[in-house]
Amino acid sequence: MNHLFSSTVAVYRLTMSSEDGAVEYVWSAVSSLQRVPCRLDLNFLRPGKDQPAPVEAGRAPDRVGVMFCASSTSLKPGDHIKTVSGPVTGTFAIKAVPDQALDYGSAHHIEVQVVEVAQNVAAYLPATT
């Protein structure tokens, strides 16, 4: 399935630190997940599993789709992914628990719904190196 992975993404997680007694949340790069090969399909929703984005008046709709990656990738709900290379650009949020697609003896790959992150939120992610 790796031959279908046309995009590369970097994964970021929200981490908590304490500065002078005040809690501060910062998006930190996950060091082992900085060049994850994947497929971002923004024209596909899995019937009965993925929720379409709600329509909101006065704003452009978010891009919603499915990300496919290797089963060894340790994604978590709440992670943000930022595209490094490939045909799709943008920053996306993982809001659901990633699903493992199983073959007869093991996990074959991971599928998870992704939702585009608002541009002002994406500006707070560190630049990809």
Written account of the structure:
- With 129 residues, this protein is mainly beta.
- Helix content is 3%, strand content 45%.
- It is built from 1 helix and 8 strands.
- Strand 1 and strand 2 (22-29) form a beta hairpin.
- The longest helix has 4 residues, at 119-122.
- The mean pLDDT is 85.
Question: Numbering strands along the chain, what is their spatial order in the largest sheet?
Answer: 1-3-4-8-6-5
Rg from C-alpha positions?
15 Å
Got a strand count?
8
The helix-strand sequence is: EEEEEEEEH
Structural class by helix and strand composition: mainly beta
Helix percentage: under 10%
Number of helices: 1
Estimate what percentage of residues fall within beta strands: 35-45%
The largest pleated sheet is described as: 6 strands, antiparallel, barrel
What are the segments in which pLDDT stays under 50 over at least 5 consecutive residues? none
Average pLDDT works out at 85
Shape category? globular
Q: N-to-C terminal Cα separation, in Å?
A: 26 Å
Task: Provide keyphrases for this structure.
129 residues; six-stranded antiparallel beta barrel; 8 strands
